[in-house]
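Schema walkthrough. Field components (list of strings):
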Amino acid sequence: MCNIIEVKELTKIYRNAKTNTPLRAVDSISFAVREGEVFGFLGPNGAGKTTTIRMLTGLTRPTSGQARVMDFDLWRDITHIKKHIGVVPEVSNLYDELSAFDNLVFAMQLYGVPRTERRSRAEALLMRFRLSEKRDAPFAKLSRGMKRALTIAAALAHRPPLIFLDEPTTGLDVMSARHLRQMIATLRDEGVTVFLTTHYLEEAERLCDRIAIIVKGQIVALDTVEGLKATAQEAPIVEIVMSDINGQIETRRIEGINDVGEGIRMALAQADGRRVLAINTIRPTLEDVFVKLTGLSVEVMLAEKGDKGQSNVA
Amino acid sequence: MLRDDLRGIYYIAMKDLRAYYFKPPNISWGILFPFAFVVAFAIRNPGDLRSLIPGLLALTILFGTSSMEAIVIVFERRIGALERLFLAPIRLSALLAGKLLGGMAFGLTVTLIVLIIALIVFGAKDINWLLLVLSLLLSAATFSALGAFVSVAMREVFEAQTLANFIRFPMMFLGGVFVPVDSLPVGLQIIARLLPLTYSVEAIRKALFGVPSTYPVLDLMVLAVFTIVLFALAVHFLARQLD
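Field assembly_structure (string):
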């Protein structure tokens, strides 16, 4: 599998307009995205996720470093890169005054989709995103979830092989978010490479083939979900669930052991005549990995995003 | 690349015309506002109404092209829609040219309506049509570029409107619309010569009446220079927003 994005020591330094102090929003990051995968970019608010996307899509000039997207150089061939990518920004940004259908047609016009294909392709996208009934409704009149869906549809209108999704489900209700996740999974099945930023860890865990975690502009981990979990587990943990003669249930964790077998032996020894209902080996979640690497709790991160600590992952 | 740019210019202009320009309030405002000023002047100074037509046409182009143009980019930046255009596979100059073309098309349309009414009322004798068309086209390009420059230079809609008015209103009174530039005090004449509206009014007046005896080619060249400089500045400011 070849790389569709290759990033080497990419850096973005902003200058504070008032104090003129430099801020390293993205600090010499290097990574590669493989063709056909869903690549997750996780990090707390202000970690550099959006700035990275903006650099890779030509919306912000990097301060230094190199990147190749679809084998085109980011500095020299940005117009060619733009032809082959779709971008869904954090905020749905189609034209309020145009209808759902006209927004899709305009997206196709900009990318040179042949006139004969535009109508049928727009209708197909509306159907795929369950928006056919809203075909002629102005974008301004759509619900938040519908706006998000239409923004993604517009990014797919010219059939790009690579799509950037910046926090696609943020602020959506559970059902809308679920539908969008299904769409992202379908895109992967169709061979589209997806570069996804999110702060919903369950979402990343379900959708992403590999995940990079970015903190303060630097990538602190990059692996598959399983790989990340493996690095977070320093020693096995065994959990025993017991019931006494009165049916009272007690759960105990055995930590600080060398291997699972030792943990099970210690757990059974602690049963002390009580009925053992279950013995589980505890594996770290992606949340454990995230907390360990960023030092932030997930609730804090969601609250920073205005989700009041609520996830929309059902 | 050029083909992509030309396609982008055309569709951005068409989109802007549909989404923003051709709305009833814009059309009526674009015609009524210059009319109101000219009628007010005519009532205060009754005389040869025909002589006010060049100024009326120039004012209509100025307000028709620049009113919406001056806020459309700021507005799209605020709602994030400008990023869609940044992401399109076209150069920044093409993006801005699309915006320019939209403003020009609207300004020329409302000016055409005013021109037709003027021709019906006052007749179309001895008009230099080639000069008139070139004057209107270059005036529209200049004022649309002015609107685009104001729009990319400002961050908020109200800032853009304020700056646009700050530029347009002095131009309206010094640019030869109501009073010939030659009759102004010398100091104001110098200022008038720095304003594009002066050259627009002169070129249109020459096309309609054959006066004043200035060189219309010079007027057209000055308008072309204004267009190029304002457009280049607008592209420069827009490019800086990607830093």
